Amino acid sequence: MSMNNASSGLIQIHSAPKALTSHVEWAISGVLGAPFHFRWDRQPIASETSCAEQGWDGPVGSAAKIASALFGWRDLRFEVSEYASADNDGAHFMHTPSRGIHRVHVDATGSAYITQARLMHLFDESADSIAELRDAVARELGSEWDAELDVFRARVADHSVTWLNRVG
Q1: In this predicted model, what pLDDT tens digit does every residue of 109-124 receive, in sequence order?
Q2: Which one of 17, 92, 128, 151 has the minimum C-beta count within 10 Å?
Q3: How far apart are CA 168 and CA 166, in angstroms?
Q4: Phi-psi region for residue 161, left (φ > 0), alpha (ψ -120 to 50) or beta?
């Protein structure tokens, strides 16, 4: 993999039914082209589910492919991030059973941003009031997904991130 096609990020599975955990790993392995395994913990908020997080390395665009591979399981809460680099913008995908999936653009500092074209569209849609514009921007940045996932993010305090490097 050439350096300008290399990327990395973080996968956070906030809640997955225990029967689904091996399928999640299998789907991610298929995207990254190498075996991928999590260290699963019990999710304290929903004890019948498991949670895990792990870094990944792979080609640019892998976050979108991982999120797409996981999207079909409605009982899954997850986030997949791809870090920005000099050659590529980053991305952050959030999924909840009640809201579906949402993508946010991310810059090199990890800050979410809205593209100029999308921002102009939001201005046009929200021409009636500043409150409408504020709500539209908040939706665009994924605040509703953040609010729903926040409860699940605060889980096991000593959970460490394990990096998996792709070989080959």
Answers
A1: 889 999 999 999 998 8
A2: 128
A3: 7
A4: beta
